[in-house]
């Protein structure tokens, strides 16, 4: 950005809260920024970017502590929930109030409820219990500074603390929404909603809000109308003078040594050594050698020869006319006869002889002779015209011949006798004069060249004189007009000074106006580019989480990369390890799409460094196939397992599996448990705390209550849950634990005893070769259980008899049961405290 844009940045940042609170409506933000420019625009310094980002002043939630609700959604009576522990698991069948609990948390943390918006309810209307006019909810949280305080309702900060079905589907199917819906979800996903709202709150321009109108200038312009004519004269004369200057420069280019028109006039017009007089003298000197008119003489010869040809044709025509001269005398007679023939006649009009008896019909003869006489008459007319033309041409030629020193007076009568003489004379002159001209050709060319140069010099002299006079006239008129303007300027000196100062002010504000336009354009481009940058930061984590939840073994099912949409109408593009690229919405199944939505939400929660994650009945959104992957990822991925987790579910098996992921030792310090029970008598929520489903916790509680059989049953269930986990952990380490197991009957699964026996055998095998001792403690613990069982199978009988219902002659031995329970606790600790460190290989061990 340039300095002016950085100054705009400083003004906005220094007054951020005031600017951010204004929107573009009614030009409110433009007015605010314009006011800042007027007040501080001259003193503000360009913004200097700091390498260290300013840390947020907002406190961040470290964990939730306590929730109190009354008259909120399904809660009628006051209820209090202890949320201070690392985990809070809530189980309840559909319709028992789990969503009301999560919505109370959502309302406390974000100030809204997504479900209310989707159903077009106002939050205040949606959250109230049917029997309560006003609901109350209070959430106490611990912030990262260690202080306990009521939660701050911040939808932008806390949106991705929550994971539930609607959110999962919304982000999995983001590309299927309208452009407006996509934009809203993308802004939320990338945490840009607040920033985009801020960026869109700028007006396009602040030009009309700044004091730009030139008030003083307009005042001066009104007065300047009085001298408008003088200004126009000055302007026009300046243009004229500029044009004369161009003409002067063009003229002086011919005379490199001269810089001034006056100098050029002197060298051109001097009577003694001026260029013009010198050139005239040279021409006069050379003009004594006269160029003979050879071309003109040739033209006269050609004319003479042409007249001779015409004279011959004239004589021929005269001879023809002369032959018919006697016939012409009868023309009147023939005409009279022809007139008589127009009346019926039987006799000759001359002798009265009957027509039938005459030798030649006089009327026919008269008509024939008249045609002949008409032709003769035409020739006579042409003869007269030729005579006249030839006579005139002879007179003209006689006059022209005098210019070449031939004196004659040609007529029709003397042309033939004079022709040859004149012709010879002309031919002689042409020959002699041609020779003369050739011999003096150089002198003649010099004369012509000098004449052209003289003409050019005279033209330059006239141009010099013209420019000089025009300059004088223009300067005179200009000076006169400038005097009028000067007198006006003196009378309006103060106003003119204010106009100049106003120009600087306007220029200052116009620079700010242009800087503002470029500033918001760059801000817009930056805002549009942010989703792409932020998407890249999420893409990798989404792929990692998606693959971890799905656990696909084939390259065409495992994701290599994902491109989240960065603008409306973009799709979610996925690429598999086999190189195939697809649109996620097109190829993924419903279950996989929801896993993708969950992965996006988890990745966003990790990216935003939230310390809390709240699941609202996630089982509703995820199918059975992927629940094991989710459980494993929540407890094995350190980016998730270190967060405070609050989870509700209607899945009884799911909640049991979740609890058994935790170590039984000190479980009550880490886990708060609530069961929402079905109330068959009223709509009031029934909530039972601390109904743990952890096998070993339940076993311990039963032993303490003297319920030995029930305690043994839970111990067996614990071993049935822990033994397969050991098998999975060995596979996770890259081993290939293919166990040899005995089956008691066809189509049956391996029983627990044979599974433990197979695990011990496999661990013994890898300890010998290649010497992997990571699981030695696990083997030793299992062998203790197995060793005890060999004493008349007492321990194993305890497990079996405690599980299966049968009549017994003797009671269970409490000490034996306690011994088995301690072994189960030891085995649980080995499984759940196992860390994936490098293999420990004892190189002293060799295969036997």
From TrEMBL:
Origin superkingdom: Bacteria
Keyword Ligase: no
InterPro entries referenced in this protein's UniProt entry, alphabetically: P-loop_NTPase (IPR027417), Rad50/SbcC_AAA (IPR038729)
Location of the Rad50/SbcC-type AAA domain: 66-237
Keyword Secreted: no
TM segment ranges: none
Keyword set, alphabetical order: Coiled coil
Any Gene Ontology biological process: double-strand break repair
Pfam families: AAA_23
Coiled coil spans: 440-505
GO function terms (MF aspect): ATP hydrolysis activity
Protein name: AAA family ATPase
Originating organism: Candidatus Endonucleibacter bathymodioli
């Amino acid at each position: 950005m340039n300095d002016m844009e950085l100054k705009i940045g400083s003004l906005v940042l220094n007054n951020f809260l005031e600017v951010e609170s204004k929107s573009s409506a009614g030009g409110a933000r433009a007015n605010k920024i314009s006011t800042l420019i007027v007040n501080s625009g001259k003193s503000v310094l360009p913004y200097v970017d700091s390498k260290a980002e300013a840390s947020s002043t907002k406190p961040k939630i470290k964990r939730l502590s306590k929730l109190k609700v009354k008259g909120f959604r399904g809660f009628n009576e006051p209820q209090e929930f202890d949320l201070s522990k690392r985990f809070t698991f809530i189980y309840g069948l559909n319709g028992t109030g789990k969503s009301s609990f999560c919505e109370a948390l959502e309302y406390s943390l974000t100030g809204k409820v997504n479900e209310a918006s989707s159903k077009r309810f106002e939050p205040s209307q949606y959250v109230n219990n049917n029997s309560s006019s006003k609901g109350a909810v209070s959430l106490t949280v611990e912030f990262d500074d260690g202080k306990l305080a009521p939660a701050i309702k911040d939808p932008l900060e806390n949106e991705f603390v929550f994971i539930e079905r609607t959110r999962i589907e919304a982000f999995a199917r983001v590309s299927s929404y309208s452009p407006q819906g996509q934009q809203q979800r993308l802004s939320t996903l990338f945490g840009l909603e607040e920033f985009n709202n801020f960026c869109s709150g700028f007006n396009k321009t602040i030009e009309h809000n700044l004091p730009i109108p030139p008030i003083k200038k307009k005042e001066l312009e009104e007065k300047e109308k009085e001298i408008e004519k003088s200004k126009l004269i000055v302007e026009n004369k300046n243009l004229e003078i500029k044009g004369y200057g161009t003409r002067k420069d063009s003229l002086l280019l011919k005379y490199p040594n001269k810089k001034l028109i006056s100098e050029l006039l002197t060298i051109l017009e001097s009577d003694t050594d001026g260029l013009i007089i010198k050139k005239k003298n040279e021409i006069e000197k050379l003009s004594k050698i006269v160029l003979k008119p050879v071309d003109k003489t040739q033209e006269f010869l050609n004319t003479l020869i042409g007249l001779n040809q015409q004279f011959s044709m004239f004589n021929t025509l005269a001879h023809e006319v002369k032959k018919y001269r006697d016939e012409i005398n009868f023309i009147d007679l023939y005409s009279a006869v022809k007139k008589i023939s127009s009346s019926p006649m039987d006799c000759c009009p001359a002798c009265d002889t009957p027509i039938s008896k005459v030798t030649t019909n006089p009327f026919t003869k008269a008509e024939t002779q008249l045609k002949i006489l008409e032709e003769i008459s035409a020739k006579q007319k042409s003869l007269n015209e030729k005579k006249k033309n030839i006579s005139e041409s002879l007179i003209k030629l006689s006059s022209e011949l005098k210019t070449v020193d031939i004196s004659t007076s040609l007529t029709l009568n003397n042309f033939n006798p004079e022709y040859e003489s004149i012709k010879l004379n002309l031919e002689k002159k042409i020959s002699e004069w041609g020779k003369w001209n050739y011999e003096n050709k150089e002198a003649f060319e010099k004369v012509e060249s000098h004449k052209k140069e003289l003409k050019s010099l005279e033209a330059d002299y006239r141009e010099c004189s013209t420019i000089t006079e025009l300059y004088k006239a223009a300067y005179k008129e200009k000076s006169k007009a400038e005097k009028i303007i000067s007198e006006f300027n003196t009378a309006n000196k103060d106003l003119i000074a204010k106009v100049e100062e106003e120009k600087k002010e306007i220029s200052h504000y116009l620079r700010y106006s242009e800087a503002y336009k470029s500033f918001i354009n760059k801000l817009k481009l930056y805002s549009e580019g942010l989703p792409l940058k932020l998407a890249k930061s999420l893409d990798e984590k989404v792929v990692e989480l998606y693959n971890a939840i799905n656990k696909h073994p084939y390259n065409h099912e495992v994701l290599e990369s994902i491109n989240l949409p960065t603008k409306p109408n973009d799709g979610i593009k996925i690429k598999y390890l086999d190189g195939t690229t697809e649109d996620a919405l097109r190829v993924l199944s419903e279950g996989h799409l929801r896993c993708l939505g969950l992965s996006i939400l988890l990745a966003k929660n990790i990216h935003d460094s939230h310390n809390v994650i709240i699941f609202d009945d996630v089982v509703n959104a995820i199918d059975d196939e992927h629940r094991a992957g989710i459980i494993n990822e929540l407890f094995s991925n350190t980016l998730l397992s270190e967060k405070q987790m609050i989870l509700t579910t209607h899945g009884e098996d799911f909640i049991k599996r979740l609890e058994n992921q935790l170590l039984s030792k000190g479980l009550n310090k880490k886990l708060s448990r609530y069961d929402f029970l079905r109330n068959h008598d009223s709509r009031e929520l029934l909530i039972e705390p601390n109904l743990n489903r952890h096998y070993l916790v339940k076993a311990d509680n039963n032993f303490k209550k003297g319920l030995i059989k029930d305690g043994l049953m839970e111990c067996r269930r614990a071993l049935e849950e822990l033994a397969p986990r050991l098998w999975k952990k060995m596979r996770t380490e890259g081993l290939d634990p293919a166990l040899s197991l005995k089956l008691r009957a066809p189509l049956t699964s391996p029983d627990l005893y044979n599974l433990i026996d197979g695990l011990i055998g496999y661990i013994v095998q890898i300890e010998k070769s290649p010497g992997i001792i990571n699981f030695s403690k696990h083997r030793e613990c299992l062998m203790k259980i197995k060793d005890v069982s060999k004493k008349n199978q007492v321990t194993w009988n305890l497990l079996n008899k405690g599980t299966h219902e049968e009549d017994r002659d003797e009671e269970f031995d409490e000490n034996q049961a306690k011994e088995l329970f301690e072994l189960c606790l030891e085995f649980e600790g080995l499984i759940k405290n196992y860390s994936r460190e490098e293999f420990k290989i004892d190189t002293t061990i060799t295969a036997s």
